Amino acid sequence: MEKNDIKWSELGFSYIKTDKRYISYWKDGKWDDGQLVEDNKISISEGSTCLHYGQECFEGLKAYSTKDGGIQLFRPDENAKRMQKSCEKVLMPEVPVEKFIDACMQVVKANEAYVPPYGTGATFYLRPFVIGVGDNIGVRPAPEYIFGVFGMPVGPYFKGGMTPVNFVTTDVDRAAPYGTGKNKVGGNYAASLQSHLEAVKRGFADCIYLDPLTHTKIDEVGAANFFGVTKDNKFITPESTSILPSITKFSLLHVAKEYLNMEVMEGDVSINKLDKFAEAGACGTAAVITPIGGIEHNGKMHVFHSETEVGPVTKKLYETLYGIQMGDVEAPKGWIYKVK
Ligand SMILES: *Cc1c(COP(=O)(O)O)cnc(C)c1O
């Protein structure tokens, strides 16, 4: 298929309307077969629970072009399972794993002209979602649901190489200690918009959320997970009831242990003991890894490796995982799903 006339390397992370999207309806206890449609607008009842009560969830994953002209998805089964947990949490019907993966594959194939070629640094981002719809007014689960998947090309996160950015801690909580923080549900993100804006206004990339119970430990870095590399080369990432379980994070835990022979652990990361880390980063599907230059907490700036240069371990972790996603580094069994 002819690729669209898009300047792949200049793309950012913005909405582009591609040709086809997938949509499936849940009614009377079951999902229909789903289909690809051209219209990017959804018509729903004004009483839909997704509009009033946040009964919705979403996912984010990418399709990558490989050197040999193939296209592949990275661990879509993990996104499918995480979305099932989100659905369960807000009382929506689960989408079967096979249906989820099939929908993603269909959307990538139908929009192949928009999938950035290998070597451009750009990728094809997929956004699956489930929303509660149908006539309703009280606080209760919706009578009907929509499962949709759409996608678009997104640019290389780092234009001209990985550069560290700085973050600042916030007093705001994005989620409650035993609330919905570990689920990718809309309310968490509405709750984060204001503190994100405050951080950006002050010149930071985003804010750092501390654990909502004690405000002494790092929970999340904006909408990404945190990891640190200790001075004795251990890979550490926080454990908490309010962190979104990042698939990139779990993949990095594996890469650090199996590919880089590092000791790895999930545990508390005290905001007052950042000294033990040589390097730190934020991780998620969008950028894979964003190196953290420094963190400002209580008016004091703590710099890790450097505010301008990415650290050697962070760089190696990034290159290995991104290499796996693009098919240049051999992947652990079951991580890659071939679209073509
Ligand atoms: C999606 C998300 C992440 C990253 O998860 P990945 O599966 O690695 O993309 C981290 N934190 C939050 C709050 C998220 O919404």
UniProtKB/TrEMBL annotation:
Pathway: Amino-acid biosynthesis; L-isoleucine biosynthesis; L-isoleucine from 2-oxobutanoate: step 4/4; Amino-acid biosynthesis; L-valine biosynthesis; L-valine from pyruvate: step 4/4; Amino-acid biosynthesis; L-leucine biosynthesis; L-leucine from 3-methyl-2-oxobutanoate: step 4/4. Belongs to the class-IV pyridoxal-phosphate-dependent aminotransferase family. Gene3D superfamilies: 3.30.470.10, D-amino Acid Aminotransferase, subunit A, domain 2 (3.20.10.10). This is Branched-chain-amino-acid aminotransferase. The lineage of its organism: Bacteria, Bacillati, Bacillota, Tissierellia, Sedimentibacter. GO terms for molecular function: branched-chain-amino-acid transaminase activity. Its cofactor is pyridoxal 5'-phosphate. It comes from the Bacteria. The keyword Amino-acid biosynthesis applies. Keywords: Amino-acid biosynthesis, Aminotransferase, Branched-chain amino acid biosynthesis, Pyridoxal phosphate, Transferase. It catalyses: L-isoleucine + 2-oxoglutarate = (S)-3-methyl-2-oxopentanoate + L-glutamate; L-leucine + 2-oxoglutarate = 4-methyl-2-oxopentanoate + L-glutamate; L-valine + 2-oxoglutarate = 3-methyl-2-oxobutanoate + L-glutamate. Its EC number is 2.6.1.42. It holds the Pfam family Aminotran_4. PANTHER family: AMINO ACID AMINOTRANSFERASE, BRANCHED-CHAIN-AMINO-ACID AMINOTRANSFERASE 3, CHLOROPLASTIC-RELATED.
